[in-house]
Amino acid sequence: MTGDRTDLSAATLLAHGGVPPADSTGAVLPALQFSTTFLREADNSYRNGRVYARDDNPTFELPERLVCRLEGGFEARLFSSGMAAATSLFMALRPGDHVVAPKVMYWALRHWLKGPASDWGLNVDFADLSDPDSLQAALIPRRTKLLWVETPANPTWSITDIQFAAQAAHAAGAILAVDSSASTPLITRPIALGADFVMHSCTKYLNGHDNAVSGMLVAAGPSELWERAKSLRRGNGSIPGSLDAWLLLNGMRTLAVRLERACSSAMTVAKEMSSHRHIEQVLFPGLPDHPGHAIAKRQMSMFGGMLSLVVRGGAEGAIAAAANMTIWRRATSFGGPESLVEHRRSIEGDDSAAAPGLLRLSTGLEDPVDLLGDLRRALG
Question: Which DSSP string do the residues of 269-315 spell out, in sequence order?
């Protein structure tokens, strides 16, 4: 049976949903379980091990097992969103703990770290984690408890050396957590490079169809911090609905082919746009002139489906170009079947790491010839 095999590729596990058919009907598609509560036996026990769906939902377990296996982790938990997963790990720390996070990272989490996390008592410093010297200098031995890395980092797609970050964090007595939402376990496997935790916004590539919101934390091994994070998930009720979990699992069944197409098209777009007269810069780790290209080549199997274009003319030029696009849809998020474009400074504000003229592109599943044609028409 697929779920018991240890010799299968990630693509095969994904196509089968990671598990063999589990019910008496022989259905190929895993079942969706809506029940919120489970029967107690006459002897007052719960022989099936399930009590209440907040923590015992069988629909959660299937994607958790699959992502955990793909990441090579010890255990995984599904959350109501990527933000819920990330903030639960930070909240599992103690007031007064020191945290290091990247200057370039998902803007909503950065704002949370600057606001509620600091108000609660975490001491957060931001550093350029794509630079090994800056990363090392930001760590305070015996005081830093968590180093949070996002690579590639949204929206400039800078690269952090995960193996170096793990060694530096552990030497300082800290743990390393990696936001790998833009990579997925098919591109980067942070635990194999020394990370203690991996976070995914499953809303993005893992689901891949713009129809379910969820997040995932994967632990490399047992720890007190992991137990506290799981307790917060249960106590705060930070869980998705059963339908979101089911949609996530079924979205993951096509992840391998979706990701291969998106990465290939992103590379094509990046190369072609590098010489366009209205583009100042293309930010994509697959290009040899990208500062993190050598590290990306070492720790990524592909270079991802995300890139950013810095358009001449600043914010006005970038917004005008996006307005002229018809195939690239003007919407937030990434990792879906349709290609998306977004002016990030409009979302993130003046403290954004994005240049005024930066357009973030999520390359979807359309024909790359059509995608390039749309960009050329829009840019003029």
Answer: HHHHHTT-TTEEEEE-TTSTTSTTHHHHHHH-SS--SEEEEEETTHH
Does 106 participate in catalysis according to the annotation?
yes
Give the active site residue among 50, 54, 228, 312: 54
* Residue 103: active-site member: no
Q: Which residue spans of the chain are classified as CATH 3.90.1150.10?
A: 256-379
179 is catalytic: yes
Q: Could you name the CATH architecture of 256-379?
A: Alpha-Beta Complex (3.90)
In the residue annotation, 5 being an active-site residue is answered as no
Question: Model-level pTM greater than 0.90?
Answer: yes
Check 179, 196, 244, 374 and give the catalytic one. Answer: 179
Which of 153, 95, 152 lies closest to 124, judged by CA?
95
Q: Which CATH class is domain 2-252?
A: alpha beta
**Which is catalytic among the residues 204, 258, 344, 360?**
204
- pLDDT tens for 89-115 read 999 999 999 999 999 999 999 999 999
